[in-house]
Amino acid sequence: MWRSCIVVLAVVLGTQPVRAQEARIESGRTFVQTNCSMCHAVGRSGESPFAEAPPFRVLQRRYPLEYLAEALAEGITTGHPSMPEFQLDAAQISDVLAYLQSIQE
Ligand code: HEC
Predict the structure, then answer these.
(1) Ligand 1 site, residue 69, Cβ cutoff 6 A
(2) Residue 15 has pLDDT above 80, yes or no
(3) Does the C-beta of 89 come closer than 6 Å to ligand 1?
(4) pLDDT at residue 2, rounded to an integer
(5) Angle of CA points 18, 23, 24, to nearest 5°
(6) 97 CA distance to ligand 1 centroid (A)?
(7) Separation of CA 21 and ligand 1 centre (Å)
(8) Smallest CA separation from ligand 1 atom 17, residue
(9) Which residues of 33-48 are buried (b: 16+ CB within 10 A; e: fewer)?
């Protein structure tokens, strides 16, 4: 009886963070596919449709991804005049970052 309680508890505690993280990655993927994929390669492979736009999987080579959180919150305009301005809320930012982190080379 106690034993099964402990097992259930361990399963709940053990999988919760992973599932939350997967949910974030999933909605981050949806977000960038909808808003960014017409210019950027947003997956683990492939070239950007807009040659000047860096593929998302190499962003970390340029700077730590955390820097992006700030840029996304303030409206990411720097350096890309041809890119529409995006302003994301905190939840969307954590989704997008979780996704970006998951695809970095
Ligand atoms: C209309 C095309 C277009 C769309 C849509 C677009 N981008 Fe970009 N993005 C660009 C271009 C072009 C560059 C390269 C600009 C440069 O290097 O000066 C770029 C660069 C970037 C960079 C690198 C900035 C830097 O300073 O190195 C990030 C990060 C980025 N985009 C994020 C996003 C995100 C997140 C989205 C979706 C929410 C998005 N972009 C949608 C065209 C676009």
Answers:
(1) no
(2) no
(3) no
(4) 58
(5) 100
(6) 14
(7) 24
(8) 79
(9) eebbbebbbbeeeeeb
